[in-house]
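chain below, 383 aa
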Amino acid sequence: MMIFKLATGDEVHKYKKSIVVVLKDERKVLSTGPLNGGYKENLKYVFNNDGNPGAGIACKMKAPTYEEHMGVIAQELGLDSQYTTGISTAASMENVSIKTENFEDLIVTAIVTGGIEVNGGRVGDPAYYHEKNNKSEMIKLGTINIILVINKELTEGALTRAMVTCTEAKTAAIQELMAGSNYSRGLATGSGTDGTIIICNSNLENKLTNAGKHFKLGELIGKSVKNAVKEALYKQTGLSGESQHSFLQRMKRFNINEEVIWEKYEKISLHKKIENPLLKHGFIHNIHTIERENDLVTLTSVYAHLIDQLDWELLSENEVVKECRFILERICGLYNIDNPLIGHGDIKINDNDCKETIILNLIDKFVLIIAIICGEDNKNIFI
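prediction:
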């Protein structure tokens, strides 16, 4: 069925787990898709396909190569694959977000599906695939796909610049949500399988020559894409400011989770020979009792960003360790526990310690403090 009519007059349809844009006239198209990707002026159709066969079922290629696979998808959608480009995802088309921004007669529409809960990564993270002999991996869960439609004609250079601005906007949306990479402790900048298709008018009297941030076109691209990416991620995975207001979410990219904190508590219990340690279900309950408390989330956010700045070499080891000590002391004060870092447990920097060792130590001390707090049988805290 048709779900949207674009300012270009083109129609957006949703059927067979796909979003299909039917181009009514000649358009300039720039696509990252494997089928008819790159710059084209002869395309008639653009699609975004949900290739997820269902929960627990692996995605399977319908042809030997990804390009041929996408050609098969196009044919299944009733499209002429010779004049079609497409991108694929495991995000549901039911969760599509369509956002339009305009200034005078300039209109930009972003059509976005997205999810980064599994495949979200930071550019430069360790990679696990190498393309060889024309063979590609199938789409993973978690892909941000963007179809961006501009009602004006752009020069080829401006169309390419629009792709850059669009990508910046996507990354800005993700970073404003503080979404972490699944492959490193960095903040995510996208997923490893994101796709983008940009469509603009053709054969108009005037052409726009710049889609950068200093031009209104760049502004509209930024606003529409940021808003659509955020809404699509919320619809698909629930990712939002509210869901990120959690010390577990803020520290997830540092490999801190319920299990890691519980294991630390078990070690503490054995070391201190605690007679009646909490059982796991009670301990996990305590974690979630404090998980979203305002002061803890605020202090945790600052702690995480200090580690980031040490990682990025914007602050020195001594500066970061000093401030992290203060934060951990404040967290102890919030829950009226003795600071275990006083004395032998302090965060120490040895002359031969590398940055990685110091960061791992900072992460471990945070886990230690949370484990001690959640191991307290304090009815005033855990109700």
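The chain has two domains: 2-238, 247-374. The longest strand covers residues 145-154.
thats it, cya
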